[in-house]
Amino acid sequence: MSDSNTIIIATKNKGKAKEFVQMFAPYGVEVKTLLDFPDAPDIEETGKTFAENAILKAEGISKTMNTIAIADDSGLAIDALNGRPGIYSARYAGEQKDDEANMDKVLAELIDVPGEDRSARFHCALAAAIPGKETVTVEGTCEGSILLERTGTNGFGYDPIFFVKEKGVAMAELSSEEKNQISHRANALKKLSGMIGQLIEGDAR
Fold first, then answer.
1. Cβ-based neighbours of 3, under 8 Å, separated by 6 or more
2. 159 is in an annotated binding site
3. N or C end of the chain: smaller count of CB under 10 Å?
4. Which residues are part of the catalytic machinery?
């Protein structure tokens, strides 16, 4: 498979998939995810940083499917927890990737930490792998803090307990359009967006 108008996002996370489709809509390219390719291989995330994991996923899928592949690795870093859950954000409470259990664990670990010491940030590393070319990586963050309890019903992951400093509300209280303007993933994509034309043209060999 090689199509200069198609970009594969190397994720099976429906929440992330929806965000990427919305983000890439202005660029006139077809966005597909691993949800469209049930036989795609699972890439083991053995990296020690967000960037290393993003590169592993992007290059693995790009090589297998012979097309541009973009992968993200993202998570929540809490200062009072020495950067945890970090790269283990999705599985913080166990291998089953349970959002509610992950939030419960974070809130329990911070139960005695006062509001002024609950600073945190979402961090995203994006890697774009292009057949025959060097992989491009960019990173973005969104600053905030951890709330005392869940607020809002939008988004996914840790969004209900993450207070967005820039907006003054929980991430889960933002609409998808608002989130896609200020999120860690959006900030990383803004850095990548200037290269999207070059990436697509470069793949039209």
1. 30, 67
2. yes
3. C
4. 73
